[in-house]
Amino acid sequence: MEINTSYLSDHNTYRTNNPGYIVVHNTDNFSEGADARAHAYAQFHGNLSGTSVHFYTDDKGIAYQTAELQRGCWHVGVNYGGKLFGTVNNRNSIGVEMCVQKGYDFEKAFENTVELLKTLLRMTGISPEHVVQHYDVCLKNCPSQIRKKNAWKRLQQEIAVPDNATLRQGLYKVTTDALNIRSGPGTENDITGVIEDRGVYTIVQIENGNWGRLLSGAGWICLEYAKKI
């Protein structure tokens, strides 16, 4: 899944976020052209009053990230009796909106959203069981189109199947200019260092799907940003 970061901003966000959950939404904006890029553009320019999310998807195959994961977004909203309200909030979750513009292809948008969720699970170490509907949190009928098509259980089943089940210990080359080393296998753990040399490192343990423990003992890195050699 390609993730475009051209529209990252701090609009309608909190300074801190410690994501342990992912909350899935539908935009319910059926206007022509109301796709992921249009919503990302609107959030970037501060045109979405009182709301924000971290990612937008649609049926075109590119996800748009609009806020850094360490910033909390305004997406949980008002409680109408949801069982997870309070447990899940704007400061411990990642908000993902699936856009449903006029004439969109539901199946493509759904599968693109699933692909993004799998990527986020690998990147963060969040458990698939912590991917929830907005409905679960607030009792709001959202994601309305996924719910309308009775596709939520299918989404849960698809994200529960890891794409990277064949990851093994061994040598990995870092593919980004700055890769955080953390004290444990997930973004909820403290940063203990940063790899900045795109070097080759030995991984001696795999946990949470895509997190590798460094032979040096320095900590754990997300193997989404490294390639096995």
Automatic annotation (TrEMBL):
Species name: Blautia acetigignens
EC number: 3.5.1.28
Keyword Cell membrane: no
GO molecular function: N-acetylmuramoyl-L-alanine amidase activity
Top class in the EC scheme: hydrolase
Transmembrane segments: none
Alphabetized UniProt keyword annotations: Cell wall biogenesis/degradation, Hydrolase
Annotated protein name in UniProt: N-acetylmuramoyl-L-alanine amidase
Domain SH3b: 169-229
Annotated PANTHER family: N-ACETYLMURAMOYL-L-ALANINE AMIDASE AMID
Catalytic activity: Hydrolyzes the link between N-acetylmuramoyl residues and L-amino acid residues in certain cell-wall glycopeptides
